[in-house]
Amino acid sequence: MFVKIACLVVLCMLITFAPHAEAVTCGQIQVGVVNCLPYLQNRGPIGSCCGVIKDLLKLCKTPHERRKSCTCVKKAANTIKGIDFGKAAGLSGVCGVKIPFEISPSVDCSKYVFSLR
């Protein structure tokens, strides 16, 4: 009986004090974009770009987070000069992931359906 109570107390403590996963931030997305710049600006290989994209996609679990990530990528696309948007459009295939929106300075993030399928 004591062991069951002790396990329940430990479980409650873990749930209460476990760090909560935070939603992806624009800062994280901007770092991801920076990792992809050599490739996207025709200055180098793809490097760690695909790994960063895969990690960011895992963090964007809800439609709201995916819409937010789309907006952040759009802002970066409008700010950073020299991006080859043909290469940006091909990142899904090159990295073997499904990016749920078009990487473009003119993308309308409100028009994309961000389902979790």
From TrEMBL:
SMART domains listed in its UniProt record: AAI
A family per Pfam: Tryp_alpha_amyl
Coiled coil: none
GO molecular function terms noted in the UniProt entry: lipid binding
Gene Ontology biological process terms, A to Z: lipid transport
Signal sequence bounds: 1-23
Gene3D superfamilies: Plant lipid-transfer and hydrophobic proteins
Keywords of this entry: Lipid-binding, Signal, Transport
Keyword Amino-acid biosynthesis belongs to the record: no
CDD domains: nsLTP1
Job description of the protein: Plant non-specific lipid-transfer proteins transfer phospholipids as well as galactolipids across membranes. May play a role in wax or cutin deposition in the cell walls of expanding epidermal cells and certain secretory tissues.
Family according to the record: Belongs to the plant LTP family.
Protein name: Non-specific lipid-transfer protein
Lineage, broadest ranks: Eukaryota, Viridiplantae, Streptophyta, Embryophyta, Tracheophyta
